[in-house]
Amino acid sequence: MEYVLTAPHTFKSTIKLPSSKSISNRALILKGLSNSTAAIDNLSDCDDTRVMVKAFESDNNVINVGAAGTSMRFLTAYLSRCPGDWTITGTERMKQRPIHLLVDALNSLGAKIEYIEKKGFPPLRIKGQALRGGEIYLAGNISSQFISALLMVAPTMTDGLTIQLQGEVISQPYIRMTLKIMSDFGVKANWDGNTIKIYPELYKGSSFLVESDWSAASYWYEIAALSDTAEIELLGLFQQSAQGDSKVAELFLDLGVSSEFTDKGVILRKTAPRTKKMFHNFVNEPDLAQTFVVTCCMMGIPFLFTGLQSLKIKETDRIEALKAEMRKLGYVVTDRDNSIMEWNGERCVPETDPIIKTYEDHRMAMAFAPAAIRLEKIQIAEPQVVSKSYPNFWKDLSQVGFSAEEIQ
What we know:
The protein is of the alpha/beta class and 408 residues long. It is built from 12 helices and 22 strands. It folds into 2 domains: 2-18 and 213-407, Alpha-beta prism (UDP-n-acetylglucosamine1-carboxyvinyl-transferase, Chain); 21-209, Enolpyruvate transferase domain (UDP-n-acetylglucosamine1-carboxyvinyl-transferase, Chain). The relative contact order is 0.15.
């Protein structure tokens, strides 16, 4: 299935954003670890969170997380300390996403996890038991989800856990988010330099409110930047947010979008761009990279983006996917060192009727959709992938005047 998108050039609307998937999934794990019956309000309705909810509600010892990478990592750690025999699996793409660093760490702390098919990759067989804990050394540039998975189960370990992070620590805001939510559930951690220490402690059940998703907000900032005029109110966002992607409000000032925070959320307004070339290290906000690559190209603003090393192991290889799909639109984006992307303004002949491939990646679909504002139209393949994090994305675009013609 494909959507052929067309779009208006002016926008004035109020949007209720989806709840944060990242916060929702962490809160569900901590609710389970605290044996709490307290409510989690404004829980995300996306695929990843539904997978987590289903896992907690099911009596089945075989859990299929589909394409939900967060759920795979978090549930692997959670189940490793739950008595019983468990199997956790996912889509074919999930079976290609390495998990050996997390499995090795958990096994060294007393878990019993085996690979069912290919060594180093899901599916996994887990024999849940009490974890000993102790001290481990991890490269700071591994996925923050691996680190967060370990941190959340750390207080349940007999000896607690000390994580020594070596080298540059990427995606620090996601680790800080995890520690902040753990604190909301009654457990404090000590993060000193590259050492995170958590003592054995009981989580305390607590009602919890999930804020809206700043990653989802980024696509509305993109829409505002590409528009002629825009005033878009996004509900449920906090200025003082635990989400690292709240950085999007500051970054889009350079691309001509202002942010006014209110007690309801934030109001975006189209202004004048403030830069002729954009530079940014996305090591702390990797999920924003696709949004900025597409936006800058559509605005004709060259860029040099660094800190993108984690993009290679996301839902797809996002660096290669971005290069391939931008070339279809006539933009020659280059990369180097598996962590840097650059566009110096070089163009190529665009395809006549390009179809943007989404690679089972929700962020590819959502980052490219706003390009319809600057193009006559754009075709998005497999548009349903947005359900992973923003199920109402196409409905919300329709609300502001986008038109989507479905082609089978």
